[in-house]
Amino acid sequence: MIYDIKIYGNDCLRSVAEPVTEINSEIIETLNNMVETMRNIRGVGLAAPQVGINKRMFVIEVEEGDVRIVINPEFLEMSEEKESNEEGCLSVPGIYKPVKRSLTIKIKYQNEKGEEIIEEASELLGRAFQHEYDHLDGVLFVDKVSPVAKRMITKKLQMLKKEANRG
Ligand SMILES: [Zn+2]
Questions:
Q1: 5: CA distance to ligand 1 center in Å?
Q2: Residue pLDDT, tens place only, 22-54
Q3: Does the active-site annotation cover 132?
Q4: What is the number of other CB atoms lying within 10 angstroms of the CB of residue 56?
């Protein structure tokens, strides 16, 4: 099943998501649908709040066929060294701006089998982990762009918001 993506201006993108307490069949089905939805729109990541589900989980597919199912993630380390690179978001269509992120991170999470995974990541994957994690705390990449970039996108954001409120 393909979910509707919630767009900027929708309240569900701004709340702090709840931990997943039990990885049951409903959660697994939701995650499978999220992977299907992400692939359908050729995204590299999709977090549950983006489809209106208030749970701490997301899916990532930075390289085709290499899907990560990430439940209850926690950063163990985030490098002080940062790097700026362009980002976009399925919930903020048409806007791409550079965001500063830690160069490398170490993250702990559960996969769909409930196994604990600890992983180090950098570059595109490290960035995807940080971007998707932010969604679980109601944070969007446009919150983190430079003041100059922010000014450039203010109008577009207002238009997205208007549309979200109409729908
Ligand atoms: Zn996003």
A1: 10
A2: 999 999 999 999 999 999 999 999 999 999 999
A3: yes
A4: 22
Q: How far is residue 101's CA from residue 113's CA, in Å, rounded to a whole number?
A: 29
- Residue 120, in any domain of the structure: yes
Residue 159 corresponds to which tokens in the numbers above? 């238009």
> Which of 80, 87, 123, 132 is labelled catalytic?
132
Q: Is the pLDDT of residue 167 over 70?
A: no
The answer to whether residue 90 sits within a structural domain is: yes
CATH number at residue 140: 3.90.45.10
Rounded to the nearest angstrom, the distance between the alpha carbon of 88 and the centre of ligand 1 is: 7
pTM of the model: 0.96
From the CB of residue 45, how many other CB atoms can be counted at a distance below 10 Å? Answer: 24
**DSSP annotation of 18:** B
Tell how far the Cα of 11 is from the centroid of ligand 1, in angstroms.
14
Report how far residue 151's alpha carbon sits from residue 137's, in angstroms, rounded to the nearest whole number. 23
Q: Which residues span the domain enclosing 24?
A: 11-166
Domain assignment present for 6: no
CA distance linking residue 31 with residue 145, whole number of Å: 29
Q: What is the DSSP letter of 91?
A: T
Number of domains, the chain: 1
Distance 157 CA to ligand 1 centre (A): 14
